[in-house]
């Protein structure tokens, strides 16, 4: 009897999974997603993948070289903007730029991916400025970008995705990286 119950439960699980995977988002080509940290790594990969799926990607890069490289490997639909998440003035400028692009539709997705890890060392080897360098990018920049764009995300009934790390739960080494990722976890929980 337990075998039959297990088989039925497994069948229901697989049926539910199949159903969820077949669901699609209507009018995906009309939706805008802003991704920070698109010069390289996860942000660059995500921007290219979402562009291939038909979304209107607004890719925020730190350098012009990173932006040019991303534009060259994507469709004309993808747009880039230079963003330094440690600059309040730059964040305000990019927020206005995004508002012009999305109009009344709002921003369907915000992916806070920008981040740095260095300097990493035992805590007693570092200064407060070493910690602040990482915290300003990974945590405070993420918070300010989110708060600036939240009205546009709400308008589209969109989502905020904050890229954290397992080191947001367990500290493996000293420096600001683990501290900042703990903060990202806490901010994400409070935003939810």
Automatic annotation (TrEMBL):
Family as reported in the entry's similarity comment: Belongs to the short-chain dehydrogenases/reductases (SDR) family.
Keyword Signal found: yes
Residues making up the signal peptide according to the UniProt record: 1-20
UniProt KW Signal keyword: yes
Protein known as: RDH16 dehydrogenase
Gene that encodes it: Rdh16_0
PROSITE patterns: ADH_SHORT
A GO molecular-function descriptor: oxidoreductase activity
A Gene Ontology BP annotation from the UniProt entry: steroid metabolic process
Keyword terms of this UniProt record: Oxidoreductase, Signal
